[in-house]
Amino acid sequence: MQHKSIPVIFILLFLIASAASGQKQVNSPYARFNIGTLEPVASFKSLGMGGIGVGMKSGSSIFFANPASYSSIDTNSFVFDMGLDYGIVRLSDGNNHFTSRDMNFDHLLMGFPIKKGFGVAVGVVPVSSGYYKLEQSVLMNDPDYDPLVGPYSSSHDGDGGFNNFFLGTGLKITKNLSLGVNMLLMFGQVNRSYLVNFDDYGNTYQNSATEKLEMHGLNFNYGLHYTAALKNDYFVNAGISVTAGKNYKTDYQQLAYKYTAYNTRDTISFIANDSSKTFIPGTLGLGFTIGKKNKFTAGFDYIITKWSNTQLPGTGSYTADSRAYRFGIVYIPDKFSNYSLFKRIEYRFGGHFGDTYLIIHDEQIKEYGASFGVGVPMRRSYSRANFFFDFTRRSGSGVGTVHIEDYFTMGISLNFWDFWFIKRKYD
């Protein structure tokens, strides 16, 4: 292994620790429910193409949505990918608007071959975010004011989230068929609190409640890829990705109490269960791509998860089956141009739409969006700096009882690719 691997290993260890403890702090009220707002299962290269990945494969990138793709990692190479994103959320209920923003470490991926047609990948990726912060004050002139209650203020706060550490392998069975499996270790927790303070604090009880949901456990994701080479360097890929439903070990605690300004405190309810189970349902992904080698790739993914089968302790909302439709394309004008950097850049476009797993006020929350990205080659290398921009809107079915959430995300990832397993003949 080359000497330049030493500093990267230190970076790798540092970022693993960062990924394990980091959380997104973009304020989304939808994070109040269940396990929070779900993160896309995709690298930044995929996000620039609408998030497709089940039917994708590459010798220099990691598509962890389908572990069968690891069989395509180039022999004698090493792939290292880390990403940082910046998100802006704008909330609107028609009359009021609120904006929040945050920068966060997103993912860490690493892949290498065991031999030709047999690859391994490992990484840390986000599953969900549970961050939100909501405040409300009701005064005498407000429409919601009740003279029996009096003026009061309330706050809802949440933090934390869940992540997946994955270790997977992909093996080419025949010339056209590859199989793969990811071992997924999910871990993390979300914390929620609720506080009500009445202005007449001398004669009333203030109310407070806290909730903690900690969850961890092993699961497996299986993948299949079929590739067919056509004439004139054209090709088609078809992929399937399946994750089984899983009962995760759960530590759940809920405490509600009331207190006065004179340090009088009374517990209303207390629940503590460190041996309960949370059932997270299985997911099926289907992907198809068509393209021309070193020129373009266009693809489509369909993802369905039976969230209606979820069994979750606590005060989560109802859940519905989620469906996502993702499509995208990447185009390279001239990958091997000696004179123009712009011709060697990968240009990516995509879109996505579907139903989320949340039901709020009897409305299933829907989302749709569009994305754009570029992959800029680094000098004298197959490594690339990947940039993407995505706009996603979450809203109800049009009845108007839930707010609209516009989510702008941009990110940069460094996708290092190099020959790390070739022994130097000269120093």
Question: What does this protein structure show overall?
Answer:
This protein is mainly beta and 427 residues long. The protein has one domain: Outer membrane protein transport protein (OMPP1/FadL/TodX) (Porin), CATH 2.40.160. It is built from three helices and 18 strands. It has helices spanning 5-21, 44-47, 341-344; strands spanning 37-38, 77-92, 97-115, 118-129, 132-138, 152-172, 177-198, 206-229, 234-243, 246-259, 265-280, 283-292, 296-305, 322-331, 346-360, 363-377, 384-395, 404-419. A 14-stranded antiparallel barrel has the order 2-3-4-6-7-8-9-12-13-14-15-16-17-18. Strand 2 (77-92) and strand 3 (97-115) form a beta hairpin. The radius of gyration is 24 Å and the shape is elongated. It starts with a helix and ends in an 8-residue tail after the last strand. The relative contact order is 0.18.
